[in-house]
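$ fold --in a.seq
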Amino acid sequence: MSTSITVLLPAYNAQAYVAESVTSILAQTHADFELLIIDDGSTDDTGKILQQLARQDNRIRLVQRENRGLIATLNEGLHLAAAPLVARMDADDRALPNRLTIQKRYMDEYPKLAVCGSAVRVLETGQVWYAPQGEALAPRSLFANPMFHPTVMARRDILLSVGGYRTDMPCAEDYELWTRLLEGGHRLDNLTDVLLEYRAHPQNFRPAYKARMRQTSELIYRSGLARLGITPSAAQLETHFFCAAPAPATSFEIARAQSWLALIECRNDIHHVFDNAALRFVTASIQAELTCFPFLRHPLRWVKRTAYRTLKSIFFRHAHYIPARFLGIVERMRSSLH
């Protein structure tokens, strides 16, 4: 029997959350789908849980085999999928009930759209994370992964036409796939709707995983910058990583990052890789993030200004308790700021 959507859910040692994840898909308002679950050689009770769930709902197609890793599992799922649309799902997240309905409607409305993602709500904190939309998505991909992988719905034939996920891009295989699709002229977009509750696992410290992700991200950055005619030095690449995830920095580091962003804009004016207005929107948003840490740009001035504001507030709240000469101390502090 034909179906309109294949939900692809790889699972490996996910006994704590997999039932919750599967149940959230089975509860979708759009009921015409198959749920393709590939148990990637789990050694815990994941397999038993999935077998029990599969017996309860014939929309579940369960594949169980030896461990091959996530990328091999994703590519296997693309080839096994029975539907033209493939929706990704992780074994520890929860899909909101209207996820498939909203995404399929959007994909039907825009038949040239290759991939559609969405915003997510972090389960541990309740915080909502948004992904870039429209014209800003392509230039944003020069700095960071522009989509939340477990939220995407994609056209199966397009993903297969570009070779699926590359096995030599571990820990950022999705990021590399999105940039390859964009370079090939395919359109990607994100909805502002929150369609997934995402488990971030902030307690998990995975240095080896993060190190491999950084290595893969470096390859993706170099490829994207090469399209602009830029071969970055080691120092420039560090600056690019900094622009991708701004953090408290000195005025020197901020100036260096601003110069780097200006170079990217200049090269784009020459090579026309990205829409100029969209790229400048992205670089402006990065610059806004760079300049939101004043206490490290001018630490002494920040401390003195903060102390002045605090003392002034105390004075006006408790003026009848404070000796008059205290006002002179505060005013001398104020004058030293100019």
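$ fold --in b.seq
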Amino acid sequence: LQALALFEQPVHVLKQRLRSRCGQTRYRQRLLSQDGRILGDTAQLPAAGDLQLLILPLAPATETKADELIAAAANDATNEVEALLQMPQDPDLPDGDGDTALNLAAAFGCNDSLELLLEARADASQRNGHGLTPLVAAAANGRLGTTRLLLEAGASPNPEDKDSETPLFAAARSGHWEVAELLLSQRADCEHTTKSGMTALGLAALGGHSDVARLLLEARVEIDRVNAAGETPLLIASRDGQGDVACLLLKAGADADKETRGGQFPLLAACEGGHLDVVRLLLEAKSMVDRTGPDLQTPLMVASRCGYTEVVCLLLEKRAMESLHTWQHVCSSLS
């Protein structure tokens, strides 16, 4: 005890050390001096005498107290969080939506409150009413530090929500590449698919998040995996005009002509949207310019019908170059 007296908050430090012996957090511990005084966490240790350790049960659960803790955590009001946990209160009590204090602290990046809740053994994997864990909430909102704290606390990097999406999907959808990078370093499953067959790479392509796409490609994900509609990440990027992602995918070897069961393919999708830069990329990747899709429509026919003049000119230029090369080859053969 004399050695502990050198610390700024010796009672706090002693309780943390006792945790490994009694198996309870400091919030459920009470230290009594010989004269029967309860020593608060900020108190000084008595100069002499033995201390008695009491372990308190959790206080009866009430909706009011649960809401108070959740609101305090969501606003990073650490003094209120500390006081409520000292009751001691169950940190995992949910509100009417199934959200816990840890869930909202993670969503809002309230790391000081989050650390107190984790110290109180809040469940880092508890799901809310929508099946979302604190890690998903942190990843979706780009909370890098929060994500790191939860992973260090033992949260699984691969929990699935009701749609089978994981924290990596949440980061990919919102373009939070640093969070995605951290999750991948902790063995997040980069090949996981949702119930609809969507991949994290597909979500990155959908949102045009090239930094996330680059990370996933460096992790060697399957580049042409299709979703339930038969769409590859390249087709998704082409359809939505995400040129940076399309460029990355093509450089990484994506199949420029892979089609869906309905006959849709990247060049046709890009032409339907009038995405000139993507059309140019696909033509440079040797995508077949006269290939037909649904209703026997070629990319040129689709671009013409939609009035995309620049796309039409680019396609005609490509056809002219191919005709010239064919003619030169024929002449060379004849000579």
